[in-house]
Each structure stands twice: as structure tokens, then as C-alpha cells.
């Protein structure tokens, strides 16, 4: 009864339909508003996509659909002064594949390797390209195919779907090692090159498979020779396969350039030098044109065009004769007695001596207040000497005294004017500054003061003084032009399609306003060295049909009383040097030569005579252009 009572007395709850209806309507309203809000949000988003950001998304869409394929420009040809090609592009053949067009690349490469004989280097190159390639960009499987390889592929082409035989342009140097240090070479672009191009804002004009000048003229005039990249605009499908070509912008080919070099003279000099380690610079002193620039030994630049093997590169790198060094611009030598004419100009200009000043040479000169004696190359001396005879006979004692009286400050001041201790301005990046020593230089690099004894050997181009052959050649041109500076250069002209742009020598700056007579005195002394009986190179020019002016020198590696030259190892023997020009009264050719360790075969005087004969007697096309 009590349970029934409880049930009966339990409160009863009835539905409040008005309240529930309100809650339902509120929920529906919220959902509707959310839907409207989301629709509005979608509309706004579509507005921004379709209207506000239309161009951006359109570009992105095109990038997925439209691809740019670079078209390489033809590199400019390099000619000598007479129009003979020194570096040009020749057609070669290579095998290419586009990854999206080949199903099993690994198997295809192995089959081709069995057919054509791929090397380990080939596999490495393929792997490197594949890692960084795009589906629509071609991969080079093997380049520089020979005739047998081309024939084998042609016969078996049906087996290799998606593989194409394509012609391409490859740089070629027909004269091999004869011009390596002048022309240089091109090779595949490296990460270092890419960083350099990006830094200079030129990377847009290159591809990662492009060639770039690495050395010499090819490097110095890269911007002129390379040209401008073209491109092909193609449409591709979702799988990256080409549908059609939309637009082609042709590349702008590189410009041809003409050098001042005479290749036939260059070949003759190479033959004269044979196996010698040597550097020769031949110039037209009136306008600074370099007719020949020879450094031996050398190497074939064609080795580097497709990428030199590690084995071959190490062979060059470890060669004790250093063929990779351009001796004419990078070789460092004591200028020796070739500096005596320039020392004489300095002393005359500073009134240290005059034309009539004389000394008596007993075969040595003693530093005042010291017991130290500096010996002459001539054991019993030259007797009474003035500046002219001192140059003719190359008397060391005269210039020991001159050096002492000038002092290192004035010597370095004047020799710097002649171009020693600084870059010459030649259009090659591969150049050393040499060392024109000063008090400050010795303190900086040796942390000791300059002593009087350091100055004396400077007077004969020894001691701390080292220079390059191109510096000696420039100093000689300044002397020939009575103090006017001429920049040695290799560029003759640029073929600008519609016109020829000829190299213009900068306005001549004179190193001093001294007496013209001083220059003539020194040049007459150099004339005597080649033409008078007591001249140091008289025997080589006694019967020449033209007159020359010469100064020879010997860069000593040991003191006079230490050894006899023929009794020591060749690489320890003295270097032989010579500077000179001809004809004496109207120069059109000047020569600077260094034979390391004296050379072998022809003497340095004979080589000089042969060069002068070639230019003056066998050719009349060396024009003097002011």
C-alpha cells in the first residue's frame, strides 16, 4: 500500500511544447546563420582567389602547366691578329634521355653501357644529373661520342625508346698547348662559379650544365664571349610530358674577339724553346700590343673542356716543371741586370750622377765603414766606367755604388713608376704583383728593419726584389717611349656584328718630366750592348741587317765563389734574362725573355735574334698604330 501510495504521490512532469519549440528554432537559426556565414566566407575567399589574387594564382597555374627550356647561345670565336681561329665551337654528338619518357632508366643505362662502354666517370655524371633533374629536362648519358659509338647506337636505336642522339657544340682549341696560358679554356660550371655569378647578378644567363671560362682570355672576356641565354616555352600535361611549344626566344650568340697575338710567331717561339722552362713576351712597344706570350712547359686545354680525370689532373699538378703556371704573368724572378737601365734613369733624374760621372772598378765595391765587399761578375773588374759603359758591359760595381747613393726609398719610388711591384693591367686575371721591397715591406713581412746591406743587391736586380716577365716587358716599353706608360694588352678588337670595336690604349701618362736626354743616353748604352765589341750580346747581332738595343742579365741563385755553374744540378743553375727592342731608331718590336736555369739548346741571344728576324725580315704586316 505504501508503494502504491508513493507512486500515486510522485510528481508528474508534462512537456513544455512552447519552450522546446523555441529551443529548436534557435538551433535551426544558428545552423542557418553558420551556413550563411560559411557561404559568405567561401564567396569572400573565392573573390580573393579569383579577383584579388588572380594574377598570382594564374602564374602558379601556368608554372605547373608551362615550362621554360633554356637554349644555350653559341660562344664567340677567338681569332689571332690575322683572323686565324684560335678557339671555336665544333659539332659533337651525345646521348640524351628525358626521365618521363623512359620507364626503367637503370636498365636502359646498363644496356647502353654494355653497348658503348661507359666509364665510372660516366656513371657518376649520370647519377649527379639524375638527382637534380626535372622530369621534362634531358639527362646527358654520354657526350663526345666517336664514330664507332654513333654507328652502334644507330643500329640498335630501336631497343632504346626515349633515347636521342643529339648534336651539340663543344669548345675546341686547335693549337693545343701552344696558347693555353693566353686563351685558357672553358669547362662545366661549378658551385664556385654559380656563387660568383649570383653575387654579380649574372646567374640568370647560365644553366647548371653550361660551360664557363675558367682561365685566360676565355675567363677575362667571359661576358663578351658567352652571349645571352634563350629559352623555349612549352606546355606540359599533369605527368610532365610536353604537349606543345608555345614560344621560342632565340639566344643571343657571344661576340667574336680578335687578339693581338700572331699565332705563327707563337708557334715559332714554342719551337725555339723546345723543352726549356721559359717565359717570353713579345710586344709592339708603341701601342702595347702583345704579339706573343709564351710560357713553357704547357698543357693541352682540350683536356679540361669535358672535365679532366683526377689522374690526369694530378699528373699536371705534381709535375716538377709546373706546366699549370703561366710563367709570363705569374712566374716570379729576380730581374737581375735588366734593371740597370732603369736604375740609371733614376740616378740621372735624381742628380746622383751625370753623364760624365765615373768610378774605377777593380772587380768589387766595398760598403763604406764596413768590411763587406760586393763582387762584380768580372773577377778583375772593368776599370774606369761611366754610366754608358757600365750598362754596355753590365758592370755590377757601378750599380752597387749607385744603389747605395740612391737608397731604398728613392729606388722603390722610381721602380714603382716603371711598374715593378704592382699589376701591369694586362687583360688576364692570372697575374702576380711581384715584390718591390721597401722599409715598410720588410718590417711587415720579416719583422726586422731595413739595413744598408739590403739595398746594395737591389741595384743589380737581386736581393728581395722579384718580378714577373710581363712587368719587365712593361718597364721596357716605358723606357722605349721615353717615360710614357703603355699597358700591355691581348685584345685587339671585338666584332660587334654591326661594327668592329678596336682596343684603345689609355691616354699615355708620363712617369716624369725629366730631361729627354737621359732616356737617349740609356738607350744608346743598350744599343752598345748589342753592337759594340765590348757589348754583352754583341756576337748575336754583329751581322744583323737592323740595329737593336739590348740588356741581358743573370739571376744568380748562389754567390760567385760558391759554385761553378756546370757542376751543380740543372734546377739550381742561374736564370738567363734579356730585354731588347728593334729597330733601334724606330722600334716596332720589343722582347723580354727568361730561360730558367740557363736553358738548353739555343742561347738566349740566339732566341732573341730569331724573334727579331721573324718580325723584321719576314713580315711587313706589323703596323705601328699610335
UniProtKB/TrEMBL annotation:
Tagged with keyword Magnesium: no
Biochemical pathway: Cell wall biogenesis; peptidoglycan biosynthesis
Pfam families in UniProt: PBP_dimer, Transpeptidase
Gene label: mrdA
HAMAP family on file: MrdA_transpept
Active site (UniProt): 337
Protein name (database record): Peptidoglycan D,D-transpeptidase MrdA
EC number: 3.4.16.4
Residues annotated as transmembrane: 28-49
Record field: catalytic activity: Preferential cleavage: (Ac)2-L-Lys-D-Ala-|-D-Ala. Also transpeptidation of peptidyl-alanyl moieties that are N-acyl substituents of D-alanine
Domain of life: Bacteria
Organism the protein comes from: Candidatus Aschnera chinzeii
